[in-house]
Design brief:
The complex is a heterodimer. Chain A is mainly alpha-helical. Chain A has 14 helices and two strands; from the N terminus they run αββααααααααααααα. Chain A has two domains: 59 residues, no CATH class; 232 residues, MetI-like (MetI-like fold, Orthogonal Bundle). Chain A is globular, with a radius of gyration of 25 Å. Classes of the chains: A mainly alpha, B mainly alpha.
């Protein structure tokens, strides 16, 4: 019994330690490196070390000029702002489309629900890159969706709001960017909402009806508050990655739509300015820190509140 | 749902629900359908129909760049899926079975953060870390292994969620009974726990495999000269404009993934039913 206990203890240590150390080394430690490099000086192709040993003297050189530059330069500020704006609009649209969708899925006949769920998951499994690329074909001239929107005269509305550059031109605009992001992230909103709504105790709605609530009132006073965890989890799953999205703005957004993920990419790949790219990353992490904390709390709750 | 004094008749609500779902699925599937449709179009611009052809598929077989990329992607995806399932299972076990250990909150945060963290941040920080390590130790060179590290980080997060959900639903009595009957912890795991979570491991493996096969951003940061994965090839072509070869690749991927996923889920559903029947039979005592 004693040896068994000892073995179990050792097993327990290994089970925790292996993934823990791996995450410390490959997730947390890299962030500290980024923080360090963001205050380092540029050198020919890479960066100088913050700590240098020079003739026995330890030198600490911290360069905050990148941070000063970012706060003073209007373009960076506007880009951060516009990334947050596009992410927020995408989240709201995903919620507006996804909530009724998940709700109707969860209230469909139980025998049909696995198939409906499968149909939401399937695009999620096929290449996201290729599905985003597909919108390029649909939205350029003669594309199916472009033709349909022009036929319905929706381009007049979009132009009036300044969402597209000209009539019958949909690509490389705020419209195509948000469309691509809503399309990509919609399943991330639907799945947690469905999981939440499908588990709901329907007797609560009967109780509400017995107490005289109409279906509409019961929906707002019972169903929506009970699905709060799903709403928050889904919104964070959409909002946080959207802030730093790179592939969708690159393929659908064109040069006019400012997104911080592309700025980081260009600083790194085009300008080879690693310290500046790191600074952009650090500020982005600061911006998503609060949403990230909310997500973690609800993720932990959702996982642990199960019976 | 029986709202008695509802604003709308039940028939209207049913119709509305059906059309909302229909519209949603149309939105999700229209781009995929268009990709497949225009891969057979004999036109250099793959959004207008120019008659049926298979020439883009024939061209694909001679496309050395795509084939090399596919081969590398498959290798990385295989290794990622295997590694993610192992690490994800360990992490899920740690979180489900051990309610209290020091640093659990940090651990939980680190496990789930890669699910939402923008990939440019993960890619950049991982690359800068590997470069710093390389400066000190002289390795690793950027290439297949560094891509694998990046994909593993992402894959582990997804695998943990999948396995954790399954572990939480397991009745603890079965493992306790095995312990009482004298099974050692390792035997309990391999004989009792593992068969019960096998389907979750299978889905986690498939999910992380497809995630890795699809990733652009992490691979772009972590790949070195000569290690270009298939999504990187596709991305560099898609950036320049519409390209029929991309449509042909897309069609093949959609085909393989749909068959794989549908087959796997049918298999999983059947295994689940069989297990339920066995359990019921065992409960009846025969």
């Amino acid at each position: 019994m004693k040896t068994l206990l000892a073995w179990f203890k050792r097993g327990r240590t290994a089970v925790i330690a292996v993934p823990y150390l791996w995450l410390l080394a490959f997730f947390l430690f890299p962030f500290l490196i980024v923080l360090k490099i963001s205050v380092s000086d540029m050198e020919a192709v890479t960066f100088k070390d913050v700590l240098t040993f020079n003739e026995g003297i330890v030198q600490l050189t911290i360069k905050l000029s990148n941070y000063v530059f970012i706060t003073e330069d209007d373009l960076y500020f506007l880009t951060y702002l516009s990334s947050l704006k596009y992410a927020a609009v995408t989240t709201i649209l995903c919620l507006a489309i996804g909530y009724p969708f998940a709700y109707f899925m969860a209230r469909a006949k139980p025998t049909r629900q696995p198939a409906l769920l499968m149909l939401v998951m399937l695009p999620f499994w096929t290449s996201f890159l290729l599905r985003v690329y597909a919108w390029k074909g649909l939205l350029t001239e003669n594309g199916w969706v472009a033709e349909l929107l022009s036929f319905l005269k929706i381009d007049h509305v979009l132009l009036a709001f300044g969402l597209i550059p000209a009539l019958d031109k949909y690509m490389n605009s705020p419209f195509s960017l948000v469309l691509g992001m809503v399309y990509t992230y919609l399943p991330f909103m639907i799945l947690p909402l469905y999981g939440n709504l499908a588990k709901m105790d329907l007797r609560l709605l009967e109780a509400a009806a017995d107490l005289g609530a109409t279906a509409w009132v019961a929906f707002w006073k019972v169903t929506v508050p009970l699905s709060k965890a799903g709403i928050i989890a889904g919104s964070m799953l959409v909002f946080i990655p959207c802030v730093g999205e790179f592939v969708i703005p690159e393929l659908l957004g064109g040069p006019q739509t400012l997104m911080i993920g592309r700025v980081l990419w260009d600083e790194f790949f085009s300008n080879n300015d690693w310290p500046m790219a790191s600074t952009v990353a650090v500020v982005m992490i600061l911006l998503i820190l609060v949403p990230l904390a909310i997500f973690n709390r609800y993720q932990a709750q959702a996982q642990e509140a199960r019976p | 749902m029986s709202g008695r004094r509802g604003l709308f008749s039940p028939g209207f609500i049913r119709g509305f629900a059906a059309s909302w779902l229909g519209g949603g699925y149309l939105f999700l599937y229209l781009p995929i359908f268009a990709l497949v449709f225009f891969s057979f179009s004999d036109s250099p611009v793959p959004n207008s129909w120019g008659g049926f052809t298979l020439k883009w598929y024939a061209a694909l077989t001679r496309d050395a760049e795509i084939i090399a990329g596919l081969w590398l992607s498959l290798k990385v995806a295989f290794l990622t899926a295997c590694g993610s399932v192992v690490l994800g299972t360990l992490a899920a076990f740690a979180l489900v079975k051990y309610r209290k250990f020091s640093g659990r909150t940090l651990f939980n945060g680190m496990v789930s953060a890669p699910l939402v963290m923008p990939e440019v941040i993960i890619g950049l920080s991982l690359l800068l870390m590997l470069v710093s390590v390389q400066r000190v130790l002289g390795f690793p060179e950027r290439g297949m292994m560094t891509i694998w590290f990046g994909h593993l980080l992402l894959g582990m997060a997804y695998a943990t969620v999948v396995v954790q959900a399954r572990l939480q639903d397991l009745p603890p009595q079965l493992e306790e009974a095995a312990m009482d009957l004298g099974a050692r912890p390792w035997q309990v795991f391999t004989l009792v726990t593992l068969p019960m979570i096998a389907q979750a491991l299978m889905s986690a493996w498939l999910l992380t495999f497809t995630l890795s096969l699809d990733d652009v951003v992490l691979s772009a940061f972590l790949s070195g000269p000569g290690s270009t994965t298939m999504p990187l090839v596709i991305f560099s072509r898609a950036r320049l404009g519409l390209n029929p070869s991309v449509n042909a690749v897309a069609t093949l991927i959609v085909l393989v993934v749909s068959i794989g996923v549908v087959a796997a889920s049918l298999m999983i559903a059947r295994a689940e039913r069989k297990r339920a029947q066995d359990m019921a039979a065992a409960a009846r005592g025969n």
